Amino acid sequence: MTLQYVLLGFLNYVPSTGYELKKLLDNSTQLFWHAELSQIYPILRKMEADGWVEAHVEPLKGRPDRKRYSITDTGRQAFRSWLSIPVDTIEPEKNEVLLKLFFSGSLDTATVLAHLRLQLELRRAYLQRLQGPTRMEVAALIQATGQHREGVFWELILDYGEEQTKTAITWLEGAIQRVAQLS
Amino acid sequence: MTLQYVLLGFLNYVPSTGYELKKLLDNSTQLFWHAELSQIYPILRKMEADGWVEAHVEPLKGRPDRKRYSITDTGRQAFRSWLSIPVDTIEPEKNEVLLKLFFSGSLDTATVLAHLRLQLELRRAYLQRLQGPTRMEVAALIQATGQHREGVFWELILDYGEEQTKTAITWLEGAIQRVAQLS
DNA sequence: CAAGGCATGTAAATCGTTACATGATTTA
DNA sequence: TAAATCATGTAACGATTTACATGCCTTG
Q1: What span, in angstroms and rounded, lies between the C-alpha atoms of A76 and A52?
Q2: Whole-prediction pTM value?
């Protein structure tokens, strides 16, 4: 269900092909939503059948025809209606790192430490990327599109990712200290 | 796949029924893993067929027989092997609150603020629960079971939940300030 | 000339939720 | 006496991932 609205949200900016939508997902919402092409193509067809989007076929030589989808008025209405419904729960998460840590009583201290240190490295690299390239790209996009109101939300989301990542890093550093005392 | 190991992890402490495992999930791992009974029962049968667990049937009057599952040596081996494999990625998340915020350029400021304020309330209530009752229950469980090594991990996980929730609250407060300036 | 990008899709399998079904016992 | 708990499960649906399939064009 939700993926439909993600795609509508992008199509609300600009008509796109499935392939382009996949890249938009990878380049902008990967922090909080992702999908594979094999999921995107059937959903676009379903939304076309439901009258939420329209396809304009551009024949290509040697490749499958390019289908560029535009949002319809019905689709725009469905999108806005979805957007206006508040999320009134804290969404349950799945986190395999915490899960393994939870059961790590059965694991030797050295292995637990190795696992935590690996996560620490990954998070540090991720933070670098968020603070550097990602931050720049968002700023450039706001300049290029002139979407200043949208830009406020995009930057807030980046802030969220940055703060949560920093918190995870600090926690991992402390956890490593604490676990190291076990041996 | 993963749910198998979650169940094995609990069965590694004590033989349990599907119904009891569901309650263990709800009361301890809901922060990072959850499942419905309709998923748990078939998986227990599958693990029995694979020789990872054994069922001891206790007939009951008027109810379905109670099946208490114990972990086997094979199951214990599979569990330890899973546990020792490091998680070498940052797992992608789905977050509908961020998703809607991302597209909130199409939404009026008052509605965005209402959505953010609702999330702030939810997070604050959640933090109260983590700091109060949940913290106590974990401490009591460590005392009752004498699992002091495990207890370190359980408390670290609680710390993580607390810190991430605090970060979310601070971010929401700032986001509300920032969005309020838009109108 | 090899690798990666462009461009579409199908098939199979897995994972997860919601609804349905039963019916006694315990608690408020 | 109504609601919640105990105790198992099936069926249907929906969501998601992985593997398979084609084949040209562009870049290094």
Answers
A1: 7
A2: 0.95
